[in-house]
Structure formats: C-alpha cells, structure tokens
Amino acid sequence: MSRTSAQRLQDILAAIGAIDRADAVGQRHPHDADLPDVVLAAVQFHVFTIGEAVKALPRDLTGSRPDVPWSDVARMRDLIGHHYYRLDAQIVRATITEPIDRLRVACEALLREGTDQPAQPT
Questions:
Q1: How far is the C-alpha of 89 from the C-alpha of 43, rounded, in Å?
Q2: How far is residue 60 from each of residues 56, 66, 89, 105, measured CA to CA in Å?
Q3: Helix or strand or coil: residue 5?
Q4: Is 66 exposed, middle or buried (0-12, 13-18, 19+ CB in 10 A)?
Q5: pTM score, whole prediction
Q6: In the record, what terms sit under GO molecular function (predicted)?
Q7: Is-contact 84 55, C-beta < 8 A?
Q8: Domain count of the chain?
C-alpha cells in the first residue's frame, strides 16, 4: 500500500525534526571528537529519507510550491546514496540548511491546506 501525500509530508517533517535533534546533540557536546561524524551520518540518513519522500510526491503538489528546491533535495538523496565517497560535511551542511528550512515551511503549509492524495513518483 502506498503512502498518501500527507503521510509523506509528515515523514519529511519527522526527518527534519530528527536533523534538528542531531544538530542539538552535537552542539551540546562540542568536545566529543567522534560526535561530528555521528551527527553527519544521522543528518545524511535523514536527508536520504527526505529525498525518498520528496520523490514520491505528485508533481502537482510540488509544483504548487515552486519556491522549494524539490529537485535539489531529491538530487541530494541521490548524491548520498550513490556518491557517498564525495561527501564533505561542510558542503552537506551548506547545501541543506536553507532548502530544509524552506521545505519545512512548505510541508507544514501543505498539511494545513490538506492533502490526502496517494503519493506518486515525480
């Protein structure tokens, strides 16, 4: 059974929340030399999850929010999944911060507006 668009939007928001929590843990323990790698791994996993959910949203839904770089988010998922050896922590951070913020706002708005269509690949 396929997940609905609303469920996919909720998945995205849950993953964004997990990224926020991972960042907070890293900031609370600045002297732990191993933590940045652990935080980066968590962030990459959740960005991967977000990308999967974004890819499953219908085009008309993503098209209603052209200010969100939906395809960039999906491409980041592909980069993490297929070109993990190219990733640099600073590049990942710089690349995802603003798009994730816009994605959060868009997903919250779309959920408020109500959407229950089945998610389809874009």
A1: 10
A2: 12, 10, 33, 18
A3: helix
A4: exposed
A5: 0.86
A6: hydrolase activity; nucleotide binding; RNA nuclease activity
A7: no
A8: 1
Instruction: Name the residue range of residue 34's domain.
Output: 5-112
Report if residue 44 sits inside a domain.
yes
- What type of residue sits at position 115? T
One DSSP character per residue, 50-105 reads: HHHHHHHS-HHHHHT-TTS-HHHHHHHHHHHHH-GGG--HHHHHHHHHHHHHHHHH
Whole-angstrom distance, CA of residue 79 vs CA of residue 82: 5
Q: Using one digit for the tens of pLDDT, what is the confidence trace for 7-42?
A: 999 999 999 999 999 989 988 998 988 888 888 889
Task: List pLDDT tens digits, range 40-86.
Answer: 889 889 999 999 999 999 999 999 999 999 998 888 888 888 887 77
Domain membership of residue 11 (yes or no) is yes
Q: Are 29 and 64 in contact (CB under 8 A)?
A: no
Q: Is residue 118 part of a domain?
A: no
Q: In terms of pLDDT, which residue wins out, 122 or 28?
A: 28
Instruction: Name the residue with tokens 């999967």.
Output: 52
**Does 119 reside within a domain?**
no
